[in-house]
Predict the 3D structure of the following.
Amino acid sequence: TTKLIQDYARDGFISSVKLFSATEAAVHRGELERAEALLGPLHYQSKIHTILRSPYELATHPQLIDIVEKILGPDILLYNAVYIIKEPNTPNFVSWHQDLTYWGFSDDDDQVSAWIALSQATGESGCMQMIPGSHKRGMNKQVLTDDPNNVLYLGQTIVDVCDDDSILCPLNPGEASLHHGWTV
């Protein structure tokens, strides 16, 4: 755990953190699919943890809370839980961005974002890519785009990012990556 926290401080992210089994991930994915069958698409529905039990259980999973507490300390508030869904064999993508540019927090060092995989996320399927150390540079200029294939709600994009500087963050079901809101 100490190495993970050191890596987070240095790079602005950690990845492939095992939270729970692939079987437990499949149960949560099944809950998501059942909810979508009843309610319609849940992509980017903010505060979904306030109406569905599964995303709340994911966001407050004891393994995740233990790691977040080591990063932030014991005073933790769950701000949001959102499903970000990229269906297979679609042109959908997430552009280079920083989460904190649209969260509106006043103290930008006291937060952490977690992405929990409910299915395998590989380089081929579109796993996250992050730029190590980019969180230390603060906010980058971002433009809003209207590309219908960009799954980000506002299409916010940082231009002129060198992909060669990025690190792929593949995840197996039940694993998570955690990142600082300034990490590109």
